[in-house]
Write a structure and sequence with these properties.
The chain has 2 domains: 4-14 and 72-197, Rossmann fold (3-Layer(aba) Sandwich); 16-68, no CATH class. The protein is α/β, with parallel strands linked by helices. A 6-stranded parallel sheet has the order 3-2-1-4-5-6, with helices on both faces. Helices cover 34% and strands 13% of the residues. It has 8 helices and 6 strands. Helix 6 links the parallel strand 2 (90-95) and strand 3. The protein has helices spanning 16-28, 42-45, 53-60, 65-68, 77-86, 102-112, 133-139, 188-197; strands spanning 4-7, 90-95, 118-121, 143-146, 160-164, 183-185.
């Protein structure tokens, strides 16, 4: 049995920021300009307005099967995954996404060239414990990599919890919960290099 490394998707493997801007362009006819390249959340990164009512419904309509199957990869993430796979690890994704988009998300990863054959969809339950905790208990990976600190809450402590810090402005990756992260890295490539050189 290969040891498993569990991976989050958005912000770790796939570039949700670029996909968000693309959905905005489809909904409203123009690509938004960058407001803050160091912003964690898309609403802060792009020159976009807060939506409600019909405009919000119009925008959300573009977060469909095509959207979840065509998000571009984060720079260096595909190579990082191939390095981990070549070292003998099985890579499994645990993603906070609606079950109806699970197949689209997995196809997206395959189309980008990621060596990943399994994906667990874990819709957010709104509890204080990570929605990914149950899947991680079942998988029992040696490591779990995520870019959202609250998703480390309640996961088994014997799993190495690696936090991807990425863009710092407005980041939720601050505060007392940082003790939940066994290691911190700027991106997946840095995690892979560190993990494989230990």
């Amino acid at each position: 049995m290969k040891q498993i490394i569990a991976l989050d998707v958005d912000g770790v493997l796939l570039d949700y920021h670029q996909a968000y801007a693309g959905a905005w362009a489809k909904a409203f006819g123009s690509m938004p300009a960058v407001r803050d390249p160091l912003a964690y959340w898309p609403l802060d990164r792009w020159e976009v307005r807060r939506l409600n009512g019909e405009e919000l419904a119009q925008f959300r309509a573009y977060f469909d099967h095509q959207y979840w199957s065509t998000i571009p990869p984060v720079s260096g993430a595909v190579d990082a995954c191939h390095a981990l796979a070549a070292a003998g690890y099985e890579l499994v994704c645990v993603s906070a996404i609606k079950l109806q988009y699970q197949a689209a998300r997995l196809q997206n990863l395959r189309d980008c060239g990621f060596p990943i054959a399994r994906l667990y969809a874990t819709p957010n339950t709104g509890s204080s414990v990570s929605p990914k905790a149950a899947a991680l208990r079942e998988l029992n990976p040696v490591a779990f990599v995520d870019d959202f600190l609250p998703y480390l809450r309640g996961i088994p402590t014997d799993i190495h919890a690696a936090l991807i810090l990425r863009e710092p402005n407005g980041s939720p990756n601050v505060g007392d919960d940082l003790v939940l992260a066994h290691s911190q890295h700027p991106n997946l490539a840095a995690f892979a290099n560190w993990w494989l050189s230990r």
